[in-house]
Every structure is written in structure tokens, then in C-alpha cells.
Amino acid sequence: MSAPLPRLFTAALAGLVLCAGSCAPDTPSPTTAPTTAVPTTTTTTAPPVDEHGCPVVGEPLRSVSAIGGIDIGVAYRPAYATDDPCYEVVAGREFDSLTPEIATFPNALAPAPGVRNFADADAVCDVAADHDQSCHVHAVVWDPVDHPEWGIVPDWIRELSPTDRRAEMIDLVTDTATHFRGRVRTWTVVNEAFRADGTLWDSVWNTSGDDSYIFDAFRAARLADPTAELLYNDFGAEDLNAKSDAVYDLVTRLHAEQVEVTVDGEQVLKPLIDGVGLQGHFGIGPGEAPAMASMRANVDRLAAAGLSVRITELDVRVPVTDGVVSPADLATQAQIHRDVVELCVDAPNCGGVTLWGFTDRHSWITEHPDTFTGLGAAHPFDAEYRAKPALAAMRAALSGG
Ligand code: XIL
Question: Are 396 and 7 contacting, i.e. CB atoms less than 8 angstroms apart?
């Protein structure tokens, strides 16, 4: 369990940010880089800016992540950088790795029969390479049954026969792993296969009513890219519960199956999977974030089974009223960020934490206001790329401060 925030830090919060997220009507147009001239409702002076006009907010996370021994990453979407230079500047400055936010979903990779589009994901990995960051592949085998409006699985795949759909899944995983082999560090191969009660979703990929499709997907990924870290990824499975029990049962069986692959010219046996991605989409209300002791117990049982974990999609939604978040809620949001990062730092099998967006200016939270009515401001940077308390909290967790 983590220590509470240092006294000085919590005291500082009291007089600090009153406005987080979209502080309309004071925010500048998203088509311009923020400047120090932006009016704010904070009582502090505006932070200094770098040569791009982007706020400089202290020691970058990636400068302290090595102290904690973990990787701090972020989901990245190149479209957000259009007309907003600070998006790339700050992402490049703060994070160790980038995950294409939407570019490795099946609708992006396989838009039409016989077509593979890797350009969008390549663009993200190129940005990562420009900033000396690693790159991840995310959620290739995914069908969010509860969100058909997201259009993640293209209709042409839905219309295939079950046999052809299984073959297409294996081809898609093989093609993607082959394309990115040597360029990506981690893969979340299969995403969100389980309902909350631990039963399998009737996903479009589940063509046989059992989990054999998950084994087929991981086998294909491992054979095509023997060295990337392969993860099963889900939400609501962070702590001990029916879903995480089902995930544990699945991944231990995946780990027990081995295939022969060639690594550095040697034939070796490797398990189908390396670990589990715990998404970490949290809130500050009752039951909206797991008890850290329970999450730690889940991480520990995976370690005992020889499996790694990564927090893959951390964000912490808070109530936003007329663009304003209360200091108390920002402090709670900061504490959750601190707890999660500390948990990862303390757990020998946790490789890192990826944030699902870093600025309240644009992220999947701002993109889906109907899904998150009355909530938002889920990230450690505000809409003007100024630091929120969660940033210092993560920095402290990483540096042991
Ligand atoms: C989200 C993207 O961020 C959105 O842009 C998209 O509209 C829907 O998917 N769990 C996941 C992520 O595993 O891939 C999802 O990303 C958020 C929930």
C-alpha cells in the first residue's frame, strides 16, 4: 500500500488548480498552441514555456521513471497533433513509450477484404522513434460487444463464415506481428474477452463458443514475433474478482502451452503468453477504483505463476461542473495515480504504466462525452498542458519521493 501524499504536497493543492479539463470560455482554440497569456482560474503564476511555447512543468516523467525501474507510456493519436504542436512536444518530453491509440484496432488494420493498413500505426511508431521511445501494439483481436457504435470490427469481417473469420483473425495477427517484428516491445494481442462474471463475451472472434480463438491468436502472434512481450488485456480485472479469476485461469493455461520459435538463431520453446494488461480506467467515486491491496494480490498471484503485468490504460475520471473540478477531487485523482504507479514500482513483475491520454485537451474521454456524462478531466495535464496534481504524484511515486 502506498503512503499518503506528502503534507507539503497536499497543502499546495488547497491553493492550486481550481480549473482542470476544459476551462471554457478561457481555453484557447485547440488549433493554436497554448501560450502563457491564457487566462486561468488558478492563483499561481503561469509556468514558463519552452521554445515551442509549451509549458515547462518540472522534471519529465521519463527522467524519473528509471529510478522506479518501470516504463511510463501513453496512448498517442497523431490527429491530435495537427495544429497543436504541444501535443507531440509534451508526449515526447514526458513518456518512455507510445501506444497507437486507435491505429491497431481491426477496423484500422483491415478496413476491407485483402487490405492491410499499417500506415497509421507506423506513423505513431515513427513519432516514438523520433523521440527515442518504444512502441506498443494494442488490441488487434477486440470486439467491444457493449459498444457496437465504436465500429471496431468492420462489417466485412462480421459477414464472413465462422471458419473464414477464424482464418482472418489468424492472418491479421500474423501479418501485424510480422510487420512490427523488432519494432514493438509489447503487444496486447487479445482485448476484453470476458464479461464481469467471468464468462466469455459472444465476440465476433469467438467462432466456436470457447476460448480456442484466444489460443489461436496468441499462437499466431508468438510464431510471428517470438520476442515481443505478449499480453492479454482487460478492464475490471485489476483486482481480485470473478473476471480476474477467469483471466488468471486463461493466462495460466496460455502460459503452459509452448511453441518452438527461433530466437537469435537458436530453436527455443516459448509460452504462448507473457503477461496481463490491466487497463485501469478508474473514477474517484465509491467502487470506481480498486482497493490497492486487492489489486496487489492479483498482481502477485500472476507473478507467482510466472506472468508479467502492465497497467495499460490508466485514467481517472472526476466530476466536472461548468468546466471546474474541485481541489479535493484533484487530490483524490492524484492519490490514485500515485497508488497505481507505486504498485507497479513495487511489483517486480510490473513492466510499466501506460496512460490512456495525458491531456484534458483531447483524449478518448473528451471524444466520448456521452459515455462519461458529467465526468472528465481524467489526465495529469490540463487542457493547456499545465501540470495537475496527478503529475507530481506520479513523479513522486517513480522517484520514491
Ligand atoms: C478507445 C479509444 O481511445 C477511442 O478513441 C475509441 O473510440 C474506442 O476505444 N479499452 C481499450 C481501448 O482497450 O482500446 C479503448 O480505446 C478504451 C477502452
Answer: no
Pairing of strands 275-278, 308-319: parallel
Q: Which helix (H) or strand (E) holds 364?
A: helix 364-367
Query: CB of 168 closer than 6 A to ligand 1?
Result: no
Question: What is the residue with the minimal CA distance to atom 14 of ligand 1?
Answer: 139
Helices (H), 60-194: 61-68, 85-94, 106-109, 119-130, 155-158, 162-180
- Residue 250, C-beta contacts closer than 8 angstroms, at least 6 positions apart: 193, 211, 214, 232
- Assess contact for 395 and 58: CB atoms under 8 A: yes
Kindly indicate the confidence band of residue 46, based on its pLDDT and cuts at 50, 70 and 90: confident
Centre of ligand 1 to C-alpha 104, Å, is: 11
Strand partners of residue 49? 55
User: For residue 28, is it left (φ>0), alpha (ψ between -120 and 50) or beta?
Assistant: beta
Rounded Cα distance between 278 and 275, Å, is: 10
Distance CA 233, CA 299 (A): 13
- Other beta carbons less than 10 A from residue 158's beta carbon: 10
One-letter amino acid for residue 43 of the chain? T
Residue-wise pLDDT for 235-294, tens only, equals: 999 999 999 999 999 999 999 999 999 999 999 999 999 999 999 999 999 999 999 999
pLDDT in tens, 150-205: 999 999 999 999 999 999 999 999 999 999 999 999 999 999 999 999 999 999 99
Residues annotated as catalytic are: 192, 313
Distance 148 CA to ligand 1 centre (A): 12
**What is the best residue among 192, 282, 356, 362 to mutate for testing ligand 1's pocket, by most ligand atoms within 8 Å of CB?**
356
Bridge partners of 194? 200
Strands (E), 5-151: 71-76, 97-100, 134-141
Cell of 297: 494480490
pLDDT tens-digit readout, 368-401: 988 899 999 999 999 999 999 999 999 999 998 7
Rounded to whole angstroms, the Cα distance separating 230 from 275 reads: 6
Task: Give the CA distances from residue 27 to residues 49, 198, 329, in Å, rounded to whole numbers and listed in that order.
Answer: 17, 43, 21
Q: Is the CB of 313 under 6 A from ligand 1?
A: yes
